[in-house]
Amino acid sequence: xxxxxxxxxxxxxxGIPLNDFARRIDxxxxxxxxxxxxxxxxxxxDLITKxxxxxxxxxxxxxxxxxxxxxxxxxxxxPGPRAHIDRLTFEVQGGLYDEAxxxxxxxLALERAxxxxxxLQPGQPFTxxxxxxxxxxxxxxxxxxxxxAAQWSGTAAxxxxxxxxxxxxxxxxxxxxxxxxxxQIAGLQRHxxxxxxxxARELVGQAATEMRIRDVQDRILALGLFDSALINVxxxxxxxxxAPALLALRELQRQQATLGVGYADNTGLQASLEYxxxxxxxxxxxxxxxxxxxxxxxTFNGELISHLRDDGWRTLFAGQLERLSGNDEVRTSWYLRAxxxxxxxxxxxxxxxxxxxxxxxxxxxxxxxxALSANYHWMWRDVDDLRSPTRGSVWSLQGAGGYARGxxxxxxxxxPTEDSGPFVRAYGRVEGYRPLGDSWxxxxxxxxxxxxxxESLAVPDTLLxxxxxxxxxxxxxxxxxxxxxxxxxxxGTVLATASLQVAxxxxxxxxxxxxxxxxxxxxxxxxxxxxxxxxxxxxxLHWRSPVGPLRIDLAYGQEVRALRLHFGVGVVF
Length: 573
Description:
Blueprint: H1 3-14, H2 18-24, H3 29-36, H4 45-54, H5 59-65, E1 84-93, H6 95-101, H7 105-117, H8 128-144, E2 151-160, E3 165-173, E4 180-186, H9 194-200, H10 210-221, E5 226-233, E6 243-251, E7 255-264, E8 268-277, E9 285-294, E10 297-306, E11 314-326, E12 329-343, E13 347-362, E14 365-383, E15 392-410, E16 417-436, E17 440-452, E18 484-485, E19 488-489, E20 494-507, E21 510-525, E22 534-545, E23 548-557, E24 562-569
Parallel strand pairs: 1-3, 4-6
Antiparallel strand pairs: 2-3, 5-6, 7-8, 8-9, 9-10, 10-11, 11-12, 12-13, 13-14, 14-15, 15-16, 16-17, 17-20, 18-19, 20-21, 21-22, 22-23, 23-24
């Protein structure tokens, strides 16, 4: 029955004239007459409600006659018991299976990782959200490890409603392992391909893993020539063993000037002016200069570094002039360096010759020192993520040897004393990262250094050691832990620091946000016999951002009996 016929029948049964009924519901009699004759569509919900009330009809029935959903639909749902996973069948086919069957260590480790990452295990509750997330995570892990064409061969969730159980069946087809073939470069305008090709070439023949590609991208950006560097490997390549790749670059401006103002608790208010020319006189060299002026510290830095050569090395020339005043002392130091540097996926190397000179003026006299040395720095990285490592280790070794000369001129007319001779400087640092259980992340650091020199010989302060600060011993100001001479802090000939830290995500669904607890210890001294470690401990909030970890740490320095807030960006290697 049409709505008009239905409502007319009910009105007439109630004995209400049309005009009177229209007046009661505040509507035109002519309009309501057309409705009852089915010449108009059913009226708005509010008029249907008024008509039902005047005729004492069931509201839901009237709305159904008008082909409308009732305004209030009452439902009672009995959820029953929660379904749990009864059985899981998890298989991986394709190239990963073949590699693992041949005993490949990386493939076996990836298979185990996929099994461990699968969140829905027998006995656990089943939810659609967890089911979708687990499947997406498996494919993302496969693709990030070089299996770019990974897809599902089959997935099924078989529900037994009577037993409230679910049987899961998942089969992933990894496809072939993609390896990087020919690399095309786009976006170069001022620079030659040689500026990046030595670094990009390291990917050729390598598995197209996310970590390896990101590392090369980061090292290309570290050249200081580009604003962005993105490497895309063709996932549709018919030859996965030689998949072509595109390196898309966007160059930075050739010349750039930056003015900055800041404040540091150890140096006070500072202003800086930095100028960069990424193609000096149109050549394949970059020049960087920086002038920093502050209340107690004034510094000028200059660096001239070549673009990347075909052999992967860069030539550099650098210098620095610094003047630091405070605590009744004035320190003036400068150095000149010339050398070469090279970075690969795992190893970084730097060697240079340096001439350094320093002067320390105090109420007790003047100490002058200078040194000529040959230096070599070596770093080895084996971590799962260079930006925010959670597993692996980083080793850093530095060695230097040379000849130094020192002169001490006391105040009061006493004759100056002078000494000269050879010295050797050694420094090592190791950092380790490891997951602890399902949620905790642990990290540790050990740092040792020593300058081997005759006790009477003074070497420039830039070659000595100091401790304290965000990446050293938290709870103390930057480089504030050092021996004292006549009440003035000076660099030490030995250094030892250590750190232990554990961290855990704050939110289960946001693992990039963590809270941490830590304890640091260490100091710099004139000898191992006089070494007295200073302790710092505290808590922190860390964010594993896309550009690296951002850290806010609140530490208590036991020796100074004070709290200090530390800010850190990135990982110091």
